[in-house]
Amino acid sequence: MLGGWFLPDGNCDFRRFDMYGFFQSGVGSDCRLSAPLLVPDGVRLTSMSCTVLDDTSAIEIEVDLFRSEIALPGVSTGGVFTTNTSVDSSDFQTLSAPAGGGHVVQPGWAYRLSVDFGPGTPPGSGELRFYGCTIGYAPPD
Question: Which residue ranges make up each domain of the chain?
Fold first, then answer.
């Protein structure tokens, strides 16, 4: 799922380029991106990895995969996956969620990826970049 498919939550000014997105400087704090994740019912979610660039020591990037009941929109019931946080580096980083037994996707649930840039004010100029995530899943048992 590419970074350009994600939408900002709140009043943060998100800029999109060909392969990544970043927040414009000085437009808010604790900015987030989110996108729905569409996967077939019954599959087992097995992994999540995301590509970022974090060239600032002030802010960390973390990615979560949440689920919520469709009957209760906007009410998350907990995380399915949470990645490690980014570190200050001028190189690409892969944020990964610890591998587990896998979460089985059930009918009646919606899934959402959330990318957290914070806390702090985004520096802009592309110092914090989000490129996208890969979600691994296996067929039903």
Answer: 3-138
